[in-house]
User: Fold this.
Amino acid sequence: MKIQTSLKQLLVSQTRLKLITVLFANPKEIYYVRQLVRLIEEEINSVRRELDNLKKAGIVESEWRGNRLYYWANKQSPIFYDLLIIANKNSGLGLKLQHKNETLSPIKLVLYNYKFAVGEKRMEDGVDLIIVGDLFSLKEVGLLVKQEEEIRGHEINYMVMDKDEFQMRKQKRDQFIVDFFLRCPIVIIGSSSEIANIYTINDSS
Assistant:
């Protein structure tokens, strides 16, 4: 089932889903109410009501600055990480890759570096995301990444590899793979079970 369909069934309020997507896809940003109204194209009363619900649930925080009330994602929320994943799956490059994955040969995994997911600068030699799969169009993926670079205003460092290369790097204890996983990547396409299948630790290696 598509991520958008699943989320709409889980979060019955379309306004709430849109707010979570905007706020948690950009957790470093702060937004005032009318700005959010324009971004998600919903009625102002609906936006205010859902922001109040999210505030009461401890999911967002707010503060008056001058005559404007600003809202932002609460990074101390116990479900911040979960909502970060939802937002990145439901917007930007993550959503585009999922749509393309319906026509491309299957992409097995898309993993974001945590810093990339929250909009922070990576380490100079770091990688923003890894794409694992077989026989999909590198050109189409490259075009999507290029679009995301224009939106974010900076270069995206990414790697594409097939399952065999990923497995080989794992077996050799490739430092790049070890470092990437130590930085708490989030899964945009795939699941924990698929990571286990691809990234099975072989004690004899």
Notes: The first strand starts at residue 31 and ends at 32. The radius of gyration is 18 Å.
